[in-house]
Amino acid sequence: MLKELKDFRHDAWQCFRDSICKQVFTWHNRDGVNFWQSCPSLAYKSFAAYSGQGRFDLARGFIEGEISWSPKLLEILYLCQLDGHCEYNCGRVMELRPASTIQAFRAQAIKDGQTPPGGFKDFLAGLREYNNPYRKLDAERIKWMKDLPAGNVRRKTAEAPSKTKTLLYVGCGVMRDASAQNLPRTAFKILQKAGVDVGILGDAERCCGNPALRVGDADTFLAMAKENIKKFNELGVEKLVTLCPFCYSTFRRDYPDVGDRMNFQVIHIMDYVNQLLQEGNLKPKKAQNLNITYHDPCHLGRISGYGYAGCNDFQGLYDAPRAIIKAIPGITLSEMWRTRDNTWCCGAGGWMRYGFPEFADWTADERVKEAKATGAQGIATYCYHCEENLGMALERDGGKMKMYNVLDLLLETL
Amino acid sequence: MTTEAKTGIFEQLSAIVGAANVSNDPAVLEKYAKDQSFTPARKPHFVVKPAKAEEIQAIVKLANQTLMPVVPFSSGTSFTGAAVPSVGGILIDLSRMNKILDVDTIHWHATVEPGVTFAQLNAELKKHNLRVQVPLVAPPSASVLGTYLEREPVPGSSDFVYGNEMINDIIAVMPNGESFTMGNIAIKGASHTHPGGPGLDFYRLLVCAQGTMGIVYQMNVRLIPYPKVWKVFFSPFNRVSQLQAAIKKIQRKELGYECFALNRFDLAVMLTDEDAADGKALKAGTYVGVNGAKPWSTAMRKRFETVYAALPPWTLVMSIPAWARRPEEKVAWQETDYRDLAAEGGWDVFNTVGSIPNLDKLLMEEMTSPWRLQKKFGFKGTSQQLMFHALGEKIEGIENTIKELAVKHGYPADHIGGYIQPIERARSFYCIFDLPCDPTNADEVVRGKSLFNEASAAIVDKGAFYDRPYGIWAELMYHRNAVYTDYLKKLKREFDPNLIMNPGKLCF
Amino acid sequence: MIESHVIQALAEIVGPEFVSTDREIRQAHTKDPAPNITLRLLRKDPTVVPDAVILPSTTEEVSAIMRVANRFGLKIIPVGSGDNLTGLCIPSRSRSVIMDLRRMDKILEIDEENQTARFQPFVSYARLQAETMKRGLWNGGTPAAPSSNTICSNTMAYGGDWQTSNAYGLGTRSLLSMTIVLASGEILRTGSHGINPGDPTYWYGPGPDLKTLWEMLSCGALGVCTELLWKLHTWSSGDWPIEEEYHHPPVPKNHRCYWFRFDDPDVAAKVCHEICMSGIAIGVNLTMRSVNSFCGEPHQALSNKLYDEGYYEPHWLYVMNEGFSKGQLDYEEKVLFDIIKEHGGEPLDEERRRKMDNYNFDCFRSGDFVRWARPGIYSITGFGRGYVQDREKVHRFQQSVVEPNLKEGIMSANTTWPWYYAYERGYYWLDERDLYGDQLRDAAVITKMAGDLGRGLVDAGIGWLALFEPFVHWHSARVGPNFGNYVRAVKRVFDPKDTMNPDKMVFFSPPEKKA
Prior knowledge:
The complex is a heterotrimer of chains A (414), B (508) and C (515). Helix content of chain A is 43%, strand content 8%. Chain A has helices at 9-14, 40-45, 52-63, 71-78, 85-94, 98-111, 120-130, 182-194, 210-215, 218-234, 245-258, 269-278, 319-327, 352-355, 357-373, 384-396, 406-413, and strands spanning 153-155, 166-169, 198-200, 239-242, 265-268, 290-294, 331-333, 378-381, 402-405. In chain A, α12 crosses α13. Chain B contains 17 helices and 17 strands. Chain B starts with a helix and ends in a 13-residue tail after the last helix. Chain B has 3 domains: 3-96, Uridine Diphospho-n-acetylenolpyruvylglucosamine Reductase, domain 2; 100-225, Uridine Diphospho-n-acetylenolpyruvylglucosamine Reductase, domain 3, CATH 3.30.465.10; 229-460, 3-Layer(aba) Sandwich (Vanillyl-alcohol Oxidase, Chain A, domain 3). Helix content of chain B is 36%, strand content 19%. At the B-C interface, α6, α11, α14, α16 and α17 of B face β9, α8, α9, β11 and α13 of C.
């Protein structure tokens, strides 16, 4: 079952105040001047309360009755993208879980009838009403398919199951706006070129539950998760390929806590595509001649596994995207300093665009500074949320650097 | 002070140390009234020679009661004016306390009293193949405790650890008459390890304090062995800027141990055979008296000119000793690496300079038991030493300033001594530039003093730092750091409310 | 609570967004890992909560804050990373203000010619290394404390005990100069930096050296350090290597790391002594079995199991060599193996040696070391300074003090010999004994054990690092009363009103009556 705040009492007391939650993991620190911070909320607000350590102290204080609910407490809890950097560092070394503690603390807030702060109040209301984060109807889920030939991507329903045991899970992100539809369209085209069969749920797809979980509505998350697990099992899905890193992390990390048996494996589209590439099913031909930097989405890394990154319990998805990029002729990859397990959140983690948009913007602006410092012409990534948030930051910066989607770049070379 | 009062103090001092160890005889007092620096002469009122710590404590307590200042004195080889009384008082001559209390041959340290000299200690330690490091300019009769207390660098100061912090602990009589142990041994039964603690690290309040914060009567010092295999190399340089760059390269590869440079004048002084009559005094460390040294004979001067002419402007002395296991192999790889480095860096490595035979043996002796640089005092009779620290790239500018000023004051720039000692892997350097002076020539004394004062001030702006602020250097330093000075004074007032401990020194 | 007009005065200095009296903001400064703080929290001691938190960004702001503090009777606690084992950053009085230095986080200058760095107090070891190593320099070491800790506070708290102390000594040896804001608000600079700001020429004086009072153990009770100058050493490895394989990072280029095992601690000690006296190696540590097990395994459960099974043994020696040339590395290796051959000991088998890959890396820049805090509470009970060869004292201490303190459930010094670090070419050694237990269950027991062991160390004549006021009454029989008097004298000079971090270094003013 999902952990509750009281389950983290031990962690909260155990915090050693070693500051490893506050900067890039020390073994991986390659810059001591500009790009060493790891925690966006701490860097933004400066007070220690906004760090993993600070929130541990708040959790401890709350559990022990030293503090109680207040607007300030809620603000500190929700001004966090839950990007998991603190948990990677602390988890790796101390086996403590500050990000999970914050998550459970939010669930406690909702359980105690607290209203989430900032824009999260309306966000939660919308979520409960529409069962997705965008206040859209389920018909929006299939708009991306318009004018695409059916090909080898077939609807998979109980009534008309396609033969394939691989389900392509598009995610609610596609409903956000027209630009978001690009992700499944590109994936679709690449899979067609590779000649593989996948099924989709179309407008029968339902939210993975990530927004509910992040905002603290544990009950809604559980209900959504249970329903999805049941559905996937019943459909005989063996491989669940997700587009969205949020969905990816939720399926891999949070669904096992639900307790229901999952008969399927979860992989990300980039991992899947890389396999196809390495097996020779895709052949990049056209040179791109581009110098890009790759932004690691947090949810493809740190909090996408059940163990601790860096403990060989699992490793984040860092190599597959880079392998794809490097397979593209003419591409130069100029790495930033905070990469892989130490990536800096794009700012949109934890649905921050809806909660505290100025903070989401600031976080993205910091990432753009780092991207620019590499001398690259653009930032490439793969995520509905990173692309939107970083794209907006690049525009604020004058638009000289461009935003790229990794699979778009691949598609252009095939 | 009234005669009655003085008599009273005399009697009390006699009661403490015994009548034979107190003096107010003017002839005796005169001997302590000055040293080789330009410090104005001032006689103490009394000279006492205690034999143990309890006596020092009693004297200091008496000083507090009578408000009579005390001035600690260890070996009289100071050129700094630190032991010249500023306002009279009781001069405490610590030379009777001359026991080597302990030698630990396993952990390489020795405990000494203030009267123990380098010659005395090294003679004892030689039996165990150990030695205490001696500054190149310290005579054999210098007090080990007193010298180390004044932070005088040694040739091994180039190493980050071995040659830099040689004090393990100190015990002092504080201005209130209490005995205070600083360092690990403050805990009964604990070992001589580190001078820090107890609580805070107090010891550096007494180091370089010229006896203004307390009278140190016991010190434990670190030792090193004699080398089993030893090679010394020499490299000529025309300019300090090139020399310091080479030294930095060597030190950044952490090659060798002792490493320093002498200019033509200093090296020539070192190498010139002394007049036969002076040999004994030089080796005993009594060559330089309170009025300086007897000037060289004409013959010696001639010998000097010959040696001088053969030497390069600067000579780098690079010492590669090995005192532990596989010493031949150690010296071999270090020599190989050093020669490779020098070839890459563009400087020559020789076994001598100026065709001097056995130069390496001579420098080996100087690095273990120095005595030869005292001879410089005989060049004209005395010598004023500009002792300062500076960053490597600043030294050449400082040298030029000193030379220009020397010429301006009518001194030949060629007769300025120079010694450059890298410290802490050449992160910085300690320098001594010597200005010889004839003390019997009144006009020269005036000019010499004027040159010394002007040069002292001018080189501060060029990057010189006087961490040991003797005489006028105190003003030059303390005027530039008011807050530091203020707090030193506050501390002094706290520790020495009656201001009896060597008043008039530093900023007090 | 602090009056609103006083908070207003503080806000006018740093801006209202950088001072806060919010209870939630203050909560992040109510706990550090010390067991005595746990005990205070468990008994709901209200004085652990500061009244305000302030974040200055310049020396001038710190100075202005001190003037306000003096005027209005505030207690200022300067805090760096805040990681310490003796409760140094937690208040004990009302009107306490945490001065969190995290905005003063700049590396101001790296002078490659003169091998120095100049930086503000909130720069961590890892950050300074990241910047210096790429320039062929480094700061010389890292404590077993995480290198995410700030250099300034780590050095000023405990001196900076590094794994490479055989070559470089205590961290204080590298601390060149400081800018200190005093309790009065005056700004003091030491050494040549005091004559000419930023000048790294020399570290002491002029004359008597005041830096000595702050550089170790002053606990923020004498002033706030707002800038440091630091000595750098050659880093012969190029840039910092990459951890390609999780948990098995490479040894930095031009370094060699060796592990040996011993059955007899006295033989191990002899070997340690010989290695140092031979003038080789930058780091020589007789490691602690518990720490080996923590660092060697990614999960504590496995660490505990393998520790109990004896897979991780008591007497493992670790030697680090740095070479500027192959000639040096080969020579030092030969000497090392000569000593082993002569006295005893054997190289650790490859399987267990490989487990210690983390440890190797940690000794240069610690990342995983802080795992020793993983079991729970952690206390350094003893920090003696002595000789590794003082076998009689050590055996007597183990028998008469350690063994009687055996406590079930406390993974403690009774089952592990001390951690020895060589200092300054073996002239002395630090010995460290740690206790671990569950934070909540064992705080009281560990506090008592720490006291017993600490007192025992002093009584055994092994030495004790930190003789602060709370410990004075234990130690005065052995140490004598005058050091406490002199500590108070220094406090009187620099902080007569006891504005700075009261009750840590010295009990200067009477304790407050608790409401």
